[in-house]
Structure formats: structure tokens, C-alpha cells
Amino acid sequence: MAPPPFSWTGCYVGVEGGGAWGQSQHVAATAPNPATVGLPITLRFNLAGALAGGTVGCNYQVGNVVLAVENDMSWTNKGASSPDMPPFSRGAISSTNEKWIDTLRGRVGWAWDRFLVYGTAGAAFTGVDVGVCSPTAICISDSRTRTGWSAGVGGEWAVWSVPAGTATLKIEYLHADFGAGLFVSPPIVVGRNTFDSRNVRLTDDIVRAGLNWKFNW
Predict the structure, then answer these.
(1) Which residues fall within 8 angstroms of residue 117, CB to CB, at 6 or more apart?
(2) Which residues make beta-bridge pairs with 121?
(3) CA distances (Å), 126 to each of 18, 74, 77, 201, 209, in order?
(4) Are 101 and 74 in contact (CB under 8 A)?
(5) What is the CATH number of the domain that holds 188?
(6) Is residue 200 in a domain?
(7) Domain enclosing residue 39, as ranges
(8) Bridge partners of residue 3, in order along the sequence
């Protein structure tokens, strides 16, 4: 007898890791001179780093269509810094760093037996540290959780099965946009140094591979 067709239906857990890059920019929200509010404190600068974490989700297959919901949580060291531009303080350095990123997404895919391609979209969350160092080496930082959206594409391959479950390998690209968030609010004064409030723009591009275990319940 022919073996039964493979089914993607079931819930799964997994691990994943890869790289992340993106862009950030600091824009003045307050300033001693009101005319400079809204001007860029930094140019757009590139961020890069690694990430690693875990995922959990559930699939439901109807014909060749696979519907799913997935949540993942990853540690990351993505970050970079940039010098401030005139008319802001010459010699000051502003930085943006991410500590973790979490996405909660839906997936819609098309399965050819043990191979699945899919598109995905949903919410994204990240923990962001913004730092500023004055020319006199006095530094401050502010940490916030930012919320945005994410979308991407991926492919998954069921490589090994036993009655209890199936191991799958995946590769995935995601873009996340967190818009502009307010940091250092209210402004911080340390001695003769005033650190102005700023809107910090942030985007992520993520490429990662993963290993999942789908339970055949």
C-alpha cells in the first residue's frame, strides 16, 4: 500500500538563529532652540548583530494550503552608534541597541508533500536601549519596549518523521518596522550637559534558520 501523504497539521516548538541588520536615526523632540526641534540629530546609520532564540506555533492543513500562527522570542546584540550633527553638540555620540525581539505572526503557505513555502505577517516587539555620550564623556541611557509590525517569507522542509513527531528545517526572512519612539523624556541635565528628548526611528531585517519539532498529535 502507498504511504499516506504527509500532513503539516500539528503544533511545534523549535530553536532558531541568524543575523539581523537595519537602520536607526535620532531626531530632536526638544532643544534649547525651538527652531531645531524636528531636525535630525544623527544621519541614518546602519545596525547589525546576531540573534538566537526559540519559537512555538501550530499548523492546520486544508488540501495544499497550510494556515498557522507562530510566536518567537530571540536575544540579539544588534546595535551601532553615530556622531551628532550640527547644530547639535559636536563630539557627542548617540547609539541605538536592541536586546531582544519578539514577533507574533500568522502564516499562510502552500505545501508540496514535505516541502512548504509561506508568507507571514503580524506584530513585532523589541527592547531598545538608546544612549548619548557628551563631548566630556558623560553618558546617559534610556530603555523602552517598542511595538511595530513584521512581514516576510520562508520555506520549511520535513526531514525526518517517527510516529510521535516530525523534525523540520526552515529558513526565513523578516522585515520589522518600529516607527519612531520617544526617548530621554523629559530631558536629562547632568552638570552643564543637557541631553534632549529624541524620537528614534528603527527598522530590522532578519535572516535566520531554524529546527522545529512538530508533534503528531
Answers:
(1) 109, 110, 153, 154, 155, 156
(2) 106, 151
(3) 16, 9, 12, 13, 20
(4) yes
(5) 2.40.160
(6) yes
(7) 10-74+81-215
(8) none
Instruction: Read off the C-alpha cell for 56.
Output: 512555538
Q: Within a domain: residue 1?
A: no
Note the pLDDT tens digit of each residue in 180-193. Answer: 999 999 999 998 88
| Nearest partner of 212 among 168, 173, 163, judged by Cα | 168
Sequence-separated (6 or more) residues with CB below 8 Å from residue 15:
52, 53, 54, 55, 210, 211
Is the four-CA dihedral 98, 99, 105, 111 of positive or negative sign? positive
Is there a domain that residue 186 lies in?
yes
Residue 5 lies in a domain: no
Instruction: Return the C-alpha cell found at 187.
Output: 530631558
What pLDDT digit, counting tens, does each position of 14-70 carry? Answer: 999 999 999 999 999 998 888 899 999 999 999 999 999 999 999 999 999 999 999
